[in-house]
Known about the structure:
The structure is a single chain. By secondary structure, the protein is mainly alpha-helical. The chain folds into 2 domains: about 1-100, CATH 1.20.120.730; about 105-145, no CATH class. It has helices at about 1-15, 20-40, 55-60, 60-70, 80-90, 95-100, 110-115; strands at about 105, 145. Strands 1-2 form a two-stranded antiparallel ribbon. The longest helix is centred in the first third of the chain and has 22 residues, at about 20-40. About 15% of the residues are buried. GO terms for molecular function: SNARE binding; zinc ion binding. One of its GO terms (biological process) is intracellular protein transport.
Amino acid sequence: VQICSLGRRVASALVGQQTLGACRELVSASVVATLYGYRRYCASSSSAVQLILPEALKLLPLYALSLLKGAGLKDNVKPDDRAAWITQMGCLPCSRVGPLLYPRLLPLTRLLAEAGEHNATAPDGNTFEGLTLSSESLESGGVFLLEN
Length: 148
């Protein structure tokens, strides 16, 4: 929810004629303020060197980085692409903002093999887990789908 709210604030700031630099600063300041607030009010008894984050906040820095590197805040982006990004951030439900910022990489060869074994459904009835977006996750000869 935090990254959804942050993305919408950035999109509205871009529409409100803020500079890209000011929007980037908004993202960084918001993440720092969130983590500082968590440390100050929720994790004051933990070590000063180590901050143990709850599951809800663990991916916030990653999503913020992908927000900074996305089409909305890059310098050399076509105006149409930036406008499309602003529209998506403002209109998509929060459940779709996460995959927009950090898409899942689905191994189709593995999913097809598992689907054949489980009558075309995931073993637990939920969606399949995606892979980490890194070269280590890729397999030679594999087929992958990037969900974004």
